[in-house]
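ok here's the first one, seq then struct tokens
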Amino acid sequence: MLNRIISQAVPAAGTTRRGFLKLSAGAAGGLILGGALQPTAAAAQAGTDGLATPFVHIRPDNTVVVIVKHLDMGQGTATGLATLIADELDADAAQVTTEFAPANTGLYANTLLGVQGTGGSTAMPNSWQQYREAGATARAMFVAAAAETWGVDPSDVTISKGEISGGPNTATLGDMATAAARQGVPDSVTLKTPDQWVYIGKSFPRVDVAPKTQGATHMFGMDVAMDGLMYAVSLRSPRFGGVLVGLNEAEARAMPGVIDVIRLPDRATVIAESTWQAIQARNALAAEWDFSNAENRGTEDLRAEYTALLDEDGIAFHSAAVSEAEEAKVVEADYFFPYLAHTPMEPIDVTVLFDGTEAAFWTGSQIQTLDQNIGAQVLGIDPGSVKIETLWGGGSFGRRAIYDSHYVAEAAMIAQAWLQTHGQARPIKLVWTREDDVRGGYYRPMHMHRVRAGLDAEGNITSWKQRVVGQGIAIGTAFEQFMVNNGVDASSVEGLGQHSAYTIPGWSVDVHHPLVGVPVLWWRSVGHTHTAYVVETIMDELAEAAGADPVEFRLRYLTDPRARGVLELAAVKAGTIPAGLTRGIAVHKSFGSYVAEIADVRIREDGTVKVERVTCGVDCGVPINPSNIEAQIEGGLGYGLSAILREEITMTAGEVDQSNFYDYMPLRIADMPRVDVHIVQSTEAPTGIGEPGTPPIGPAVANAVRRATGKTVRELPFSRQGLA
């Protein structure tokens, strides 16, 4: 049991590892609580493992610390979890702060993923009940403590905005924290009903605004600083799978600030007194690579192979009877979606300290279980001897949710090599530059689709045959057993067939997963980024062919009432189309949430696209923090718009052509439209919101462009067509 994560004070070099890796327990007094609580709070006070998942620590100084088991990379997770605790506890928002939990799968597992980790927009769905119960349990124990201390009936004790009252007596939560810790833990608690909520569904201030705007130190991985810190930058193969066979490091070693050059099997790492010195010395290394087993194909080579596969039957995913004889009209189309990079504002970084027995990593860890286990495996120590201090992530979009924890493994190898060579433990910060990540990171897989859809004479869909070609993200990884079924990787087909909000007659889907040496990974909303685009643009063309209104046509096949609800809401709120603009519509279900987006688009005089306004209807269950939902929809929409306009990763002879924001061009502020978000006041359990805003924007804009130009953009990004 613990009441604090690794100390905020960064240890100086030379401090014993056991001293600073040990998690303090009960040192400050007060009450520590979690879900699935054990018989007595005394166990928590003693620092034992008696409490299952410690989610909140109420200190005698009247601070309420919410222990956040998920990474917050800008999506507002910490604020959401703090909201749940504060509401059930009846704390004052001003007294609430947060700390990230340490790596401990037994205590902090994401119950929807089976590991301690964040992803798939599961943070709130996973924690909704768990954190509310922790807050309610704490409240019950404060009530019991106050009743005992003041000699009043528990029914006469109230808590409001962090102040406890009973008869003529008042106290703060801090005043009563130690007494509350002596109370027995109730077997069950009653949660508030919606009419009793103070913060949930209303407002709660972002817990990260103040530290981010006031220049907090040691918040992000890039901020980490400590005595004796060294900086590492690696030279990696320019082609995926290349092997380092020769290295001339003389010039690099002679450069200012260089401490060492470490050669690893597939890379060379410069260690220096600063990141800049390490980069300059890395650039001076002369390397020889063996590319015989590398991925040597370029984009056009791969595209030709994918195109050939479109002509061959794939692995069946969703089968339905197809009656082409009834077809009066047919829509046929091929689609191309390029590789995409994640490009978070904070590139990959991790600081490591290893003394031969224990290790600590400071990073924006998205899957702590994997980072801890793989770090331990590389170092040859027990996972319990590996501590992870999770820091705020400066964006991720899937980039930090690595199935192989590659950057933690790399840092571990560097730390181990340093210790073996120098015999002294020193902290090392491994930094990936943006160029490193764009040229040699992980990507949203390239995909192609082929669709043939038919209408009968009355304008009803009779058939829909769809073929998908693209790398499976989970194939060949530790996630394969969970995500690959009968040879089909779920990430390539999510949003299609039985996973769609639509019920479409004759819908059949088959899949090819070509083996390519390009490392791929989930990217914000994963497969929905291309499946929604295809489905919604085809639906729009079918509606036109049927002579039907695009909203009405979709409603015919939306049997899910929540999908119908967001589409109808967005359509009403969008109003009439402004003069000079064209309108496109898309609706999609992803990660349990429903989003409809209606885009009003203008074609500029130079032929490029300007999205003027997007109206959104959103149903993500109970809206815990409405303002945060709006922000996530705006951010997800902007991220998706950025991708469809100009972003693509291409390769020539196996080497990535792009390197930074000048040639992998994200959305500019002038391209960002006005966004109006309308939230359904649902009573359903909360679902994800970090990703669902991304899939509909691409097809909504494409449908508007088709109305303006007569052509559907089927090859992304739009810049390939001169539209951006």
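and now the second one, same deal
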Amino acid sequence: MERLKQALSAAGIAYKENEPLSAHCTFRIGGPADVFILPENEAKEANVKYYLLGNGSNILFEDAGYRGAVINVSAMKSAIGILENICFPGKDPALTYDAVVVGAGHAGCEAALALARLGFSTALFTVSVDSIALMPCNPNVGGSSKGHLVREVDALGGEMGKNIDATFIQSKMLNKSKGPAVHSLRAQADKKEYSKRMRRVLEETENISIKQAEVTELLVENNILVGVRTYTGAIIHCKVCVLCTGTYLKAKCITGEISTYTGPNGLSAANHLSDSLTELGIKIRRFKTGTPARIDGNTVDFSKMEPQYGDEKLVPFSFTNDPADIEREQVKCYLTYTNEKTHEIIRDNLDRSPLYSGMIKSTGPRYCPSIEDKVVRFADKNRHQVFIEPEGLYTSEVYIGGMSSSMPEDVQYEMYRSVKGLENARIVRNAYAIEYDCIDSLELKPSLECKKVEGLFSAGQANGSSGYEEAAAQGIIAGINAARKLQKKDPIILDRSQAYIGVLIDDLVTKGTNEPYRMMTSRAEYRLILRQDNADLRLTPIGYEVGLISKERYDGLLLKDELIQKEMNRMEHTSVGNTDNVQELLKQYGSTPLISGITLAELIRRPELDYDKIESIDKERKPLPYDVCEQVNINIKYDGYISRQMKQVKQFKKMEQKKIPSTIDYSKINSLRIEAVQKLTEIRPESVGQAARISGVSPADISVLLVYLENYNRNVSRETLEEE
């Protein structure tokens, strides 16, 4: 202990002897410490037992005191990370967070959770803590192709699937009449409960600090991110930052002739961060989206509408949940339609529509048009679907799906009340359009890191996409890759043959987008193997490798895969003959009678039969989990198509594995067209496969590039050998 005192004195570090610990903890209990150290920079223990003391909350010391050194780190300026990591102009620098996430929507929540769960201190900034995981538009999760994204997020270790499973009020599998490749789960959410639960998860996750503040500036030195500044002037040091700003950047809400500079639902806009991005040389785009009115459900005549029920047999979004875990009473939604009167009202008031008056100049989503846009673009249609969806169990408010609008308030009343069942509707919240800034997605690498600023990542609508699900998918990838940058590991990049997430990100960073990007099954070339039902088999091993999936969950996946393979093998090698019970079953389902023996797998491949239907003639069958049975049925029934697609994937992988050095000067490649040189230089693809998907790069350009790379690699190999 004497050696420690001498070392402290020599270093100029203040300390006290026999200091009562009761004075330094919130419970005001505790005897003296032999040595109480008050460092401002660094302290070394010199082989003495020691304890690091922060603010002293939730700590009890014995009355006998502490036999050793207690180090009070509350005054330290670096290296430990116990205090709030904030400093102000003119003040000494404070500690650093590992990561900052800007925005607490669906992208921000997944990014922050990924970073924190991987062990990194994370500050999560939001314009309002009451808007965490907010659903400012449709109160549902999933849908066509979007359900795939949610299950993929879950398979990687994300939270969205668990959150909607816990808070849905109606669940439905879409496209069940079609093949399994396009089956997509969709659930109606209790909007408030969804937000409340996600906030609770964030608050209970170690390493996350939630902060209500507007981030106005990115602090960058030598093209490397070093921190952020808030509107109040606070500086927060960090090593990586993930932008998840949604529709808040210079947001403007428009209803008729009235525009207000606010974010969705009247929340504050983020009016300064766009300028910081522009100053850093990052290209900004201006997009638009919109939302329909919310109507008091007590003023709706549901008897005039078609009820829409949830599924009796529920399928969870999260692979961690069993169907029995999520059983509950479901609410009804309703379907009605616009009519000629509705369309006439809209046409008569188009001159007052911001869309057609020139008031809205930004680009809106082509695949989710407003009702006035539908009426103009599809003039031959005499009606459009309108879905009446409850906002939650806590309110009578209902969402008018299919009738988003930016018409003036008086026109909104007129057009909504022209719809069957809405004749006496009372609007709670007007429909509006919202314009906002976002990053040109071509500014990003496939890892979602910004090309021009190292350590800066971006996800969600900030990248020009639309939708909660697209946002969450990008959020978890951005969070993972920000963490891997801190770990000095290569980023996780999912390709188009691995996941819908891979398709989504590749489209954004390779092709860019001129409108809010929406995921669709048609965008996925390999959708037969990228089904929502097998997302865990595809991606959970990656989640486990990253560190977001527990060993228990991973072992469960390995067991599931083993059961699938064993059962498929049994089906392929178990035969039945033309016995009476077999022939009776075939007759029941209108299937061709047997003349000779046949395997159970061959029976499953018949269009009218499946794994469940042949159970009565399968005498050796043992009970298996529902998801195992599902995979056995799909893999056997579609075996030929799946095999064909796997061959296509093999060819795709060959092109993806042909990497392009980042140092290549495309202007020096003879025979490349000027447009190809410009596009390749701008996007800087990481592989020949990615280069081939760039708009403006032709197959002839790719042939030239392949020849060049062959010569380039040969020369590099020769130079390496000569050096050796």
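notes on #2: The first helix runs from residue 2 to 11. The chain has 21 helices and 26 strands.
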